[in-house]
Structures are given as structure tokens and as C-alpha cells.
TrEMBL record:
Subcellular location: Cell membrane
GO biological process, one term: neutrophil chemotaxis
Name this protein carries in UniProt: Integrin beta
GO molecular-function terms, A-Z: amyloid-beta binding; integrin binding; protein kinase binding
Lineage, opening ranks: Eukaryota, Metazoa, Chordata, Craniata, Vertebrata
Domain Integrin beta subunit VWA: from-to ranges: 5-414
Domain Integrin beta subunit tail: 586-668
Length: 720
């Protein structure tokens, strides 16, 4: 149903077909047009983007806060699933301030490097002044945690961890901040000159500890708010990281907070090393770009580390650090020539793709975009996958303070031109029309408010429509007056059944045809045409391969489907003749053999009822059947011989029973002893079925007849 306005009158037309769910109103514009909805009657709210702050990009640095990213704020209103794209622009300001923090490994192996660094102040400042007139340099040093197994904890060794030949040596330490950011060259030279080598035991150093403190202790280091922040790490060794602290019994994880007192990291021996992820996060959060100036032996190690830390560079340091100034210049040029844009705090179900617009653009990416130019642009595409409350996230270039704040909301409501009629005729005069759908007055329900619920509440009526899983009409229909009105399927057929549980399109296929094209699908099961069978009507009806030599079908112990025997449990194909897992009939039919052949046993009183329908028998003097002979002891201890031949069916047998049963010949030998002689007597009994009880009786009689000790022995043989 859709609605149109003619003058001041609203004409409501039926858009949904009988049985269709109201959800068909929501579709692509092309599908709605195809179904007959006019273009002017389709409500399709577009995305909107509004730039709320767009300060002009700065050209040069003039002591004020420069603007390098535009716009700075934007508001998006999106329809779920519909992407919107807007441009952002970045321009690096000429002469933008640079803060460089020189973090040096002062373990014993860096002794010759320290001597050269003490004279680098002039060259470092000269190199930075080529970039900007607003440069500052700070200095820090590190070795490792002052606990075993990293450092010798002997009292004297803690105070002097260097070799005996080293006259100047400072006490062991983890990380020391030496000089806050300064623009004065002489101050840098003086402070660095005061530094001496220290020492430790193992090769990896505590460089990540030092980098973490230099990142999070911004007020002590002196990082400026508006500056390019460079952290230069120089070392000739690898690094300890999270988990290594366990070697010293340090289990407390690094908390990423500043713990510096009197310029020393005071939690070095209490807190574990940071993980690479923790360090990368803090460097990014504080817009610090690291430069790893390392010797040849560990270049590959730090290149792998650099891959996990965005906006970082690695340079090979000479063995005595003479090339460190050139190395810093090259690394800075690489960092400043490449701009990487990414985002923070991205909400769930929101996707962002960056498409660089520059000559040396990297590929579009969902996490970041990269351009190798000073002035660049990016197209940012944002998609909200679901409806959500107003939220926001930030976009910024890595290592740059400037940010773009994106405020995002979703448009999940259609702005319909609803008729202002309280009881619309389309709703049987019992409700309003809202976006083409009836909103019923109290006491009425249904697609057109056609159902009066009377004394019942709507919940009771809806309960009657729920299937065994508690789903109303199986999710395939509408509950109207306590009964399911089923929707149509995509092909135009209807779901059916009390709870719309059936459809006629989900049957098994054969040769890509529903029910093989030889039957009709009914509620998920194929009803085959005459002459066809099988789960997909894939077989012609035939029993030829199921016929046995006696012209039965599967010996009555299975069903013939698709010209093959599907045998009952235990019976084996191809024709269900033998049962490998069934009980031995010699045992299961013994009671019937005894009552039919000799009129005795457990079934004697109801032999006809218990056995006549499953065992057909004949008494014989000699067997004629070729089947296996059964030989079992009956209820009176006599041996019975018989043969069984299974007939058609599961429990039908023909039996030949041998007339004569086995007899027992018992020879009793009793010995009675008198004081002067031993006498032995033997008595022979034949065909005595219950000889055990007789023997016990005889023993008792003999013992009472003689005063002497009596011994009775019995032996038996079988005769037929």
C-alpha cells in the first residue's frame, strides 16, 4: 500500500498483495518501481554531511596554533548501509617546530659512541635549523633494570658496574632523564658532557622502558603542544619486552603511566617492561615519531619492531655514531614526506575507507591512507551498517596533533505524509494510517484493524499463533485474530500450515530440478508421480533387483526403494538374507521346539499361541535340511537336536526336530566300609532324566542303612 495526495484529499492505494508482509515496502528503488510504486511516492531519505568547522590551512608557522588539516569538524547523518564520501586536506606548515629527544644507550659497549655524541650538539642544531627556526633538543639515557639477572646486584658493582680500567663510571640505573627540551646548544653540550658509561650483565637493554617514560612524561620531557615530536633511540643491542620481567620475579604489568622522580624512573625494579603494543599506542597517542639509530648487528631486529610502530624509521648507525646527524636528517625527510591518515575510537558497525588523492598514493584502505607528498587530499568514505545513537570518532594524520572530529547519526525513520484522519477507512475505521500501515485503535488488531479482540488481550491471541519454538507464525506470517495468515514466498507461492511452517520450494532436488521434475513438493517432502519414487523422485518404480530366488522382495526383511533393498537392522544387503548381529535362533527357538516336539517346557501350556505362528515343524528320524544343526539341552536335561530354516519375514522358521532325545546312563558306585572289610557295589540306571535328585536321595538312603562310612561315585554316558 502506498499513499498519494490529490489536493487536500489523501487517496490510499493497496500496495501489498494479500498475504504479503509489510516488509516488502522496504526495498531498492528499482524493485519498488518494478512493483508499481511511483517514483514520487517513494520515500528515500538521502545521506547528509555538514561541515561545522573548517578553518583555513596555514602556510607558515607564526607562533600561533597552525592549521594543517581541514575540515576540523563534520556532522554526518547516514542511512544504514548507504555510504557517504567527503574530502579532507592536509598541508604541512613550513617552519613547523621540531622537538627532538635523544635517548642513548649508556651500557659499556657504547663507550666510544658517547665520546662522539658529546660533540654532536652543534651539528644536530645545524641540521634542525635547516628544517625550522623553532627547534629544541632534549637528552635521556638508559641501561637496564638494576636487579638480577640483568644487572650485578653486588653493592660495589651497583655503584661501579663498569670494567676496572674505566676511570669514569656512573652507578647502574634503568632510565634517567638528563635534559628537558631546550633551544640552547651550549646547554645540550654541557649536560651530555657530564654523562659517563654505566653497565649491566645481559645483552638486551631496557630501551622500551625508557621510550615509554619519555612518551608519557610529557611535562618533564618538555614536549610542546604544537611541534613535530621526534624520539631518536641509539643503541647497539636488542631490547627486553613484556614478560621478560618474570626472570627477575617482576610480575606487575607496565601501567603506561609516568613514574619519574628526580629525573629517574623509580618503578624500574617493580614493574615489567611494556609490550610493543603498549609502546606503539602511547607513541601514537602522544604524536611521537621514533627514529631507531642502531648498529648493523641489530638493524633487522629494529626493522621488525618498526613494522609494528606506525610512523617510525630505522637507520644504520656506524660503530662510533659518527653518522648519527645524517641518519636523523634522512629519517626526518622520510617521515615528513609521507602522511598517513587513520582514525581513533571508531564505533561498532561503522566502516571507514581512505582513498588518497596524490601522485604517489598508496592503495585505498579501511584502516589508513598513505600519501607521499607535502600537500595531499583524501576521500573518506563512511558507512553505518545499523541504526545507532549519535556518536563520534576522530580522524588524524599520524604524528600530527591536528584532528577531524566526525559526529555520526543515522536516519532510520521515513518522513511520511500521513493523513490526519483518526479512523481511516483503509483501517476499517478502527485506526490511523502511518507510512501506509494501519496503527489500530485499542481493542483492534490485524493488518487492516479488522479483528476485534473483545475480552481477550492481544497477547493471548498472539500466543495461539506461536509454534513449538515460540516463534509467531514461524516468522513467515502475521497473527490475525489468533490465526496465522501466511506470507508469500519470493517466487509468489504461499507458505502454509497452522504456523506457516510449510513451503513447497524446499524439497530435495535431482538434476537441479525440484523433486527431479517427477513429483510435487508438499511441506518439504516430495510426492512423486505414478511410476516414480525416492526422496527426490529420482527413481522409476522397480523391484527387479530386490527379488529373491523364491520370488519374495528382500525376504520380507526390508523395503525395496529405487530398486535396492533397504534392510531392517542387522540384515545385510543386497537382499537382506542374513543377519550378522541377530541372536542365535538355536537359543531363541529352543522353548518352542521343546513344546512343539515333546509337549513339555516353559511354553507347554500356551504352545499354540506362543509358537505356532513363528515356527512350523516336523518330527523326523533323519534330517533333510542342509542348514546348521542345533543341539541344545531341554528343561529336563535331555539333549535335543533340530535344524531351522528361516522363512520370509523376520521371525518365521521351518523346523525339523529329531524324534529321539539323548538318554543318560548313570552308573552309581557306592562303597561302604565295615570294621573288617570294604565292599563295593555298582547299580546301573538308564533313561533317568532327573538323575541328580535321584542320586542325592540314594546317598541319603545308603547313609541311613549302614553305620559305616559311605562313598558314592557317579559316572554317566549318553546313548541314543
Amino acid at each position: 500500500m502506498f499513499q498519494s495526495k490529490v489536493g487536500q484529499w489523501y487517496v490510499v492505494k493497496n500496495f501489498t498483495k494479500p498475504g504479503e508482509q509489510e516488509a516488502v515496502r522496504c526495498d531498492t528503488q528499482a524493485k519498488l518501481l518494478e512493483r508499481g510504486c511511483k517514483a514520487e511516492e517513494i520515500l528515500s531519505p538521502p545521506n547528509s554531511d555538514t561541515v561545522t568547522k573548517n578553518d583555513r590551512l596555514s602556510s607558515t608557522f607564526d607562533q600561533q596554533e597552525p592549521v594543517q588539516l581541514a575540515p576540523q569538524e563534520i556532522r554526518l547523518e547516514l542511512r544504514p548501509g548507504l555510504p557517504t564520501t567527503f574530502p579532507i586536506h592536509f598541508k604541512r606548515v613550513q617552519g613547523y617546530p621540531v622537538d627532538l629527544y635523544y635517548l642513548m644507550d649508556l651500557s659499556n659497549s657504547m663507550k666510544d659512541d658517547l665520546q662522539n655524541v658529546k660533540g654532536l650538539g652543534k651539528d644536530l642544531f645545524a641540521a634542525l635549523k635547516k628544517i625550522t627556526q623553532h627547534a629544541q633538543i632534549g637528552f635521556g639515557a638508559f641501561v637496564d633494570k638494576t636487579v638480577l639477572p640483568y644487572t650485578n646486584t653486588n653493592k660495589d658493582k651497583l655503584q661501579r658496574p663498569c670494567d676496572a680500567a674505566d676511570k669514569q663510571c656512573q652507578a647502574a640505573f634503568g632510565y634517567r632523564h638528563v635534559l628537558s627540551m631546550t633551544p640552547r646548544e651550549e646547554e645540550f653540550k654541557t649536560k651530555v658532557t657530564e654523562q659517563f658509561i654505566s653497565g649491566n650483565l645481559d645483552s638486551p637493554e631496557g630501551s622500551l622502558d625508557a621510550m615509554m617514560q619519555a612518551s608519557v612524561c610529557g611535562d618533564k620531557i618538555g614536549w610542546r603542544n604544537s611541534s613535530t615530536r621526534l624520539l631518536v633511540l641509539t643503541t647497539d643491542a636488542g631490547f627486553h619486552m613484556a614478560g621478560d620481567g618474570k626472570l627477575a620475579g617482576i610480575l606487575e604489568p607496565n601501567d603506561e603511566h609516568c613514574h619519574m622522580e628526580n629525573n629517574l624512573y623509580v618503578k624500574s625494579s617493580e614493574m615489567d617492561y611494556p609490550s610493543v603494543g603498549q609502546l606503539a599506542s602511547q607513541l601514537d597517542k602522544n604524536n611521537i615519531q621514533p627514529i631507531f639509530a642502531v648498529t648493523k648487528n641489530v638493524v633487522n631486529v629494529y626493522r621488525q619492531l618498526s613494522q609494528m610502530i606506525p610512523k617510525s624509521e630505522v637507520g644504520e648507525l656506524s660503530s662510533d655514531s659518527r653518522n648519527v646527524v645524517r641518519l636523523i636528517e634522512d629519517a626526518y625527510n622520510k617521515l615528513s614526506s609521507k602522511v598517513t591518515v587513520t582514525h581513533d575510537n571508531l564505533p561498532e558497525n561503522v566502516r571507514v575507507v581512505y582513498t588518497p588523492r596524490c601522485e604517489h598514493a598508496g592503495p585505498p584502505g579501511e584502516n589508513r591512507g598513505v600519501c607521499d607528498q607535502v600537500r595531499i587530499s583524501f576521500d573518506v568514505t563512511v558507512t553505518a551498517d545499523t541504526c545507532m545513537k549519535t556518536t563520534s570518532f576522530t580522524i588524524s594524520p599520524l604524528g600530527i596533533k591536528d584532528t577531524l572530529t566526525v559526529t555520526l547519526s543515522t536516519n532510520c525513520e521515513c518522513q511520511c505524509m500521513d493523513p490526519q484522519v483518526a479512523n481511516h477507512t483503509h483501517c476499517k475505521g478502527k485506526g490511523r494510517v502511518h507510512c501506509g500501515i494501519c496503527s489500530c485503535s485499542q481493542g483492534f488488531v490485524g493488518q487492516f484493524c479488522e479483528c476485534s479482540i473483545g475480552d481477550k488481550d492481544e497477547g493471548t491471541l498472539r500466543e495461539a499463533c506461536k509454534d513449538e519454538n515460540g516463534v509467531e507464525c514461524g516468522g513467515r506470517g502475521d497473527c490475525v485474530c489468533g490465526r496465522c495468515e501466511c506470507h508469500t514466498t519470493e517466487s509468489g507461492n504461499y507458505y502454509h500450515g497452522a504456523f506457516c511452517q510449510c513451503d513447497d520450494e524446499q524439497c530435495e532436488k535431482f538434476q537441479n530440478k525440484l523433486c527431479g521434475g517427477k513429483g510435487k513438493c508438499n511441506c518439504g517432502t516430495c510426492e512423486c508421480n505414478t511410476g516414480y519414487e525416492g526422496s527426490a523422485c529420482q527413481c522409476t518404480v522397480s523391484q527387479e533387483a530386490c527379488r529373491t530366488i523364491n520370488n519374495t522382495v528382500c525376504y520380507g526383511r526390508g523395503n525395496c526403494k529405487c530398486n535396492r533393498c533397504e534392510c531392517d537392522e542387522g540384515y545385510q544387503p543386497p537382499r537382506c538374507q542374513k543377519c550378522l548381529g541377530c541372536q542365535n535362533p538355536c537359543l531363541t527357538k529352543l522353548n518352542c521346539i521343546e513344546c512343539l516336539g515333546f509337549d513339555q517346557g516353559p511354553f507347554k501350556k500356551n504352545c499354540t499361541e506362543a509358537c505356532s505362528k513363528s515356527v512350523f515343524h516336523q518330527m523326523v528320524d533323519q534330517f533333510t535340511l542342509s542348514s546348521k544343526q542345533c543341539e541344545q539341552k531341554d528343561s529336563e536335561g535331555c539333549w535335543v537336536k533340530f535344524k531351522l530354516d528361516q522363512l520370509v519375514g523376520k521371525d518365521n522358521y521351518w523346523a525339523e526336530i529329531l524324534k529321539s532325545r539323548g538318554m543318560v546312563e548313570i552308573i552309581l558306585t557306592y562303597i561302604y566300609i565295615r570294621p573288617v572289610a570294604v565292599h563295593t557295589c555298582s547299580v546301573r540306571y538308564t533313561a533317568v532324566p532327573k538323575w541328580h535328585s535321584m542320586l542325592r536321595k540314594l546317598k541319603k538312603e545308603r547313609k541311613t542303612s549302614f553305620d559305616a562310612e559311605l562313598e558314592i561315585r557317579a559316572s554317566s554316558t549318553w546313548t541314543y
